[in-house]
TrEMBL record:
PANTHER family: ABC TRANSPORTER B FAMILY, ATP-DEPENDENT PERMEASE MDL1, MITOCHONDRIAL. Keywords: ATP-binding, Membrane, Nucleotide-binding, Transmembrane, Transmembrane helix. Its main location: membrane. It is a multi-pass membrane protein. This is ABC transporter B family member 26, chloroplastic. It comes from Citrullus colocynthis.
Amino acid sequence: MGIAYQNLRISFSPYFPPAEFAPASGCKLTAKLQFPIMISSNCRSKDFESSRYRVRNFSLMLQYMVPENDGNGDEKFKSFGNWIRGSRLLFTGGSSSWWNLDEHKKVEIGAVKPVTVYLALSRMWKLVWDSNRWVLLVAFGALAMAAIAEISMPNILAESIFSASRGKTVVFARKIQLLVILSFTSGICSGLRSGCFGVANIILVKHLRELLYSAILFQDISFFDKEAVGNLTSRLGADCQQLAHVIGNNINLITRNALQAAGALANLLTLSWPLAISTLVICSVLSAIFLLYSRYVMRTAKLTREFAACADEVARESFTLLKTIKIYGTERKEVGRYNQWLDKLAFINTRESVAYGLWNMSFSTLYRSTQVFAVVLGGISILGGQTSAEQLTKYVLYCEWLIYATWRITDNLSSLLYSIAASETVFQLMDLLPSEQFLSKGVKLQELTGHIQFVNVSFHYHQRDMLLEHINITIRTNEVVALVGPSGCGKSTLVNLLLRLYEPTNGQIFIDGTPLRELDIRWLREKIGYVGQEPNLLHMDIKSNIRYGCPVDTTQEDIELAAKQACAHEFISSFPNGYDTIVDDNLLSGGQKQRIAIARAILRNPAILIFDEATSALDSESEHYVKDAISALKDNQCGQKTVIVIAHRLSTIVAADKIFVMDRGQVIETGNHEELLCKDGYYARLVKVHNNVFTSVCSEQLD
Ligand SMILES: Nc1ncnc2c1ncn2[C@@H]1O[C@H](COP(=O)(O)OP(=O)(O)OP(=O)(O)O)[C@@H](O)[C@H]1O
């Protein structure tokens, strides 16, 4: 990997730190830099040295690099200069570097095994054939009929003209009749062919998207740590759409033109084999040029998709974080970040267009020269008395057909190759096996009481240092426990392991005495209620949001009861549409979203309830209510629960039966509030700091 930007000043956006950047792990970036990177002041240089940031994906890192002078006039001059330099290279023999795409290979995302045309086509074919073979059979039947009708026409056309010139009225009338029948046959069959291939295409794209989407969704969460969301949506959207052309246009037109070319060649051979062979030579030259062109197209297509995906990812990220961008006034920086990928896209597309122009130039020249060639050779033959004018006319017509068909075949082949290149990543993703969690059939216990044990559990994220070390904790049935500790000490990670979003690197987790790995994951998750740090609601009505993922049927009363317990009923009822109000980003405050998420967790009536800083986005009053809701759930009407709360707010955790104090991935203290205060250790210090802050805030308010 290397960076080939000449004299480019690069800065890292402070709002999107390169979360995994460090030359240390696996990617010796600094050793290969061709030019020094100047890091601007908005990025602390220690971040680069720190082992916190490692290169996980070089291309991801590139997305965070922003040319410092983006958007100003200087840059426009520079890019204009680049264009001039580019054109000079193209036309002055320095073209090899102008055409060179190798440099850009370095930013391709994830090495993908190339897919052969045969493999890709057979997979696509199978997708359509398995679900609706009749469409394909009718399409190919109609295609063959139309091609036969069309290819017979030049012959009959010439015969009817020459029969008229010879005054043979009966022959002329018969030929015209035949021409009319052929015209109708060709028209009807062409319509049927296009329609059926169009339907086949729709079936193909639907299946591709369906399979791809489900293959992605069934991956482990660690898969999403490595893949950018923009890339995945790009595969689902643009790449699948690109494949939409394969059957409907490419295969359809290639087959039709191949049949027509074969028919034309057969007719040419019967008319005059020397002339036919000379046309074939021209067609072969065309094919050879096309082969060169197509190889280039395959490479540009791949890069185009990768860069478009990166641009999508930047746009997606910007739109998601729009508020942050507005507040920090980084619109121009974001435009620069986006532009960076657009420039790369333009670079590739310009070369692709020039290559297409050169290909078209070669084709047009050879096509026209064939006509001239045919007339010259044919004329000589007529003058020598070896060929008749009728034969020459037929020859010129079929010659045109052959060359035209060759052109259409190559043109569609290039588009087909473009699509096949898009299929590589799509198929690679589709071939990913679902997470092992979903494949193995685990144990379903008769009842889940919520007794949890972490036995010597250690864990680290992919390519990161060990985060949790030798965790040994026991949470008894119906206990309310709190996890406390400084930010980043691994509290949420501990919960992630309990939810089996990640597997421990060492040690085991037991639930009701059964190893977590052996339990049926769906069954287990049905029994767990989870309220995350950032409550994510879906774009649907509030009722459906509360009911989301609930394993049992629920009534409106159940939903309202859960909302009441989560202190959400009042504000929901205040909306004109009440529980039918559609949730969108601006409608609800952070606290309101969290209360809906709490209601969702309560409605499931889970055996284990997890609140990951569930109170962080709540105002004091709501926090008080939610605390009450948690206590109510603890000694609850509908069966007792084990409750795990991760909270920074002291008030939320004081009432817990047991508090686990964590620091740097280890549990350093255990006990209830009073016990821990008596220990006068880390927890006691935390409480003191909290009280001091609280007292100073109160006295400031009193002043
Ligand atoms: N998916 C991930 N991939 C890599 N590292 C991660 C991932 N999720 C979290 N981390 C890292 O693990 C460490 C612990 O994160 P975790 O969210 O468990 O901390 P926490 O104690 O819950 O912090 P907070 O109280 O701020 O939420 C952090 O340094 C974080 O950067």
